Amino acid sequence: MVTATAVRFAEAGYRVEVAAVATPGVVSRLSAEMRSLAGGLPSIGRWTPPSAHESALEQSPAVVAALEALAPVTRVQVFSRERLLSSNIRTSDGDWERPAEAAAVLREEQRHILTDREAVGWLRDYAGVFALAAARPGYLGIETAPTYLHLQADAAYMLRSLMLAPGTPVTELRAEQRERDVHLRRVLPPELMPRRRTNPPTPPFQRRPASPRQEPPTLGR
User: Fold this and answer.
1) Mind giving me the DSSP string for 33-87?
2) Is there a smaller number of Cβ atoms within 10 Å at the N or the C end of the chain?
3) In the chain, which residue ranges form alpha helices assigned H by DSSP?
């Protein structure tokens, strides 16, 4: 569809350029929920089905590669949310000035691992988004479960990466993560939830007999 549209514009005499915005998957996923919930009740934001978001995220480099291969496309630029990452233009003989790399640059940025500071900011934003989702009657359910289970997995990964980061409020962030897990297990069908990891069985507790020469311990001492 995208390449056909580009060709139609070129055939109509327009100059065709491509500008792609590359966003890390974890950021894109959370941003979609921000757009959906930011207005608060009773407003309804633009909601993206989880399958549609993940499909677009996965396939977007292929779309950029297909556009990059079209002769009518004269410029391809890839941006992050902060800056220009890549830019390429066609020369007078129709070849790219530099090797075609837009799709690879896009994919690399999508897989960007957040810095410790960015991860903490992401976790703070996620806490706010989750609070809005939990407060909206019926929002957390079968339709939205894939997104929030994925976000929980994203958060768990970041928390593990922050364990040794100095000055990071890991204890507080982990407590918030546990509260979210408890809430999801309460509102979602059990079969949707990942199984909790279980600890190896421990032998039954056995009380050691008190020595006759010692006074038994007193409760509260």
Assistant:
1) HHHHHTT-TT-------HHHHHHHHHHHHHHHHHHHT-TTEEEEEEE-SSSEEEE
2) C
3) 2-11, 25-37, 50-68, 102-110, 116-135, 145-161, 170-187
| Dihedral angle computed from the Cα positions of residues 186, 188, 194 and 199, in that order, rounded to the nearest 10 degrees | 10
Measured at the alpha carbon of residue 99, what is the angle toward residues 95 and 103, in degrees to the nearest 5? 110
pLDDT the model gives residue 132: 94
Q: Name the strand (E) or helix (H) holding 113.
A: none
Class of domain 1-112 as given by CATH: alpha beta
Reported pTM: 0.80
- What is the pLDDT averaged over residues 155-177? 95
Q: How far is CA 51 from the centre of its chain?
A: 13
Query: d(Cα 35, Cα 168) in Å, to the nearest integer?
Result: 28
Q: Which two tokens stand for residue 70?
A: 């079209």
| Structure tokens that stand for 186 in this block | 């309460």
Residue 145, C-beta contacts closer than 8 angstroms, at least 6 positions apart: 184, 188, 192
How many C-beta neighbours within 10 Å does residue 115 have? Answer: 11
